[in-house]
Amino acid sequence: EWGRLAAAVLAHHSGAASLVTALHSEQARLKHMELVATRDLQVLIVLVLQSGEVLQQMLTLHEAVNQCHLSEVAERITNKCRGFDSTAILRSAVHGNKLEAQVIDLVSAVMNRTDTLVAGEVYLDGVQNVLSEREFVESENAREAVRLLEEHTFLERFLTDALRPQIGGVQVVIAGEGGWSELRECSMVIARYGTAEIATGALGVFGPTRMAYERAIGTVRYVAKLMTELVCETYG
After folding, report:
1. What tens digit of pLDDT does each residue of 151-176 get?
2. What tens digit of pLDDT does each residue of 21-46 get?
């Protein structure tokens, strides 16, 4: 809800397109886990992280196990591994308990992959604001830049490279400077929000290179500050 609302506010006040990435912890830590029997040997693992992220992964068991036993295993692992990162969870595996070891191996792998993500879920708003600008109407390259920003993989690479780890600092990328030739016909104003101890996300606006930078920077800075305060108040 925060992400969608922040994207709408950014787009409205800047007159450009906006993007907000969901909160993401640099090091995933387990809060809660559930194991749900589906069919045959298939089990759904549901992980809730301390950052609020929810992960799901299917697991194929070596042998059939009823739901009651699965729930007991999930509760045991949750109680033992709450607050653990992927490495600590892997070390907690009990030798001789094949089911628990199988679950822990996969949980650790899923959380380890999550540690490498940057963008997470992305909320966009105001894309029509920029597509109606003359640069984007007349240029296929400009429209392609908008499409790329909607691609999770490209956005992850861009944010990893362009966004500093500090919270609250606003950065401006004009005409794809810094090696991002794909964005040479547009500009971006971005900032990180949240807290490094809990979880962070990114937000910003993008549009033609003639965008009103002073207004965009002020809007991004204000919304990033507001989102950071919400994270601190909610997660402590």
Report:
1. 777 887 787 777 766 666 898 989 87
2. 888 776 788 999 999 999 888 999 99
Residue found by looking up tokens 């809060």 in the block = 31
- For residue 19, what are the CA distances in angstroms to 79, 96, 108, 159? 37, 48, 30, 11
Tell me the residue type at 60: T
User: What separation in angstroms does the CA of 132 have from each of 136, 152, 184, 207, 217?
Assistant: 7, 23, 18, 11, 22
Q: Count the neighbouring beta carbons within 10 Å of the beta carbon of residue 46.
A: 14
Two tokens, residue 123: 């909320």
Q: Tell me the two tokens of residue 192.
A: 């990180």
pLDDT at 8: 95
pTM, whole model, 2 decimals?
0.66
Task: Write out pLDDT tens, residues 108-118.
Answer: 988 887 765 55
Residue 6, pLDDT score: 95
Q: DSSP string of 42-93?
A: EEEEEEEETTS-EEEEEEE-SS---HHHHHHHHHHHHHHHTT--HHHHHHTP
The CA-based dihedral angle spanning residues 182, 161, 236, 232, taken in that order and rounded to the nearest 10 degrees: -50
Tokens describing residue 224: 């990033």
The widest CA-to-CA distance across the chain, in whole angstroms, is 67
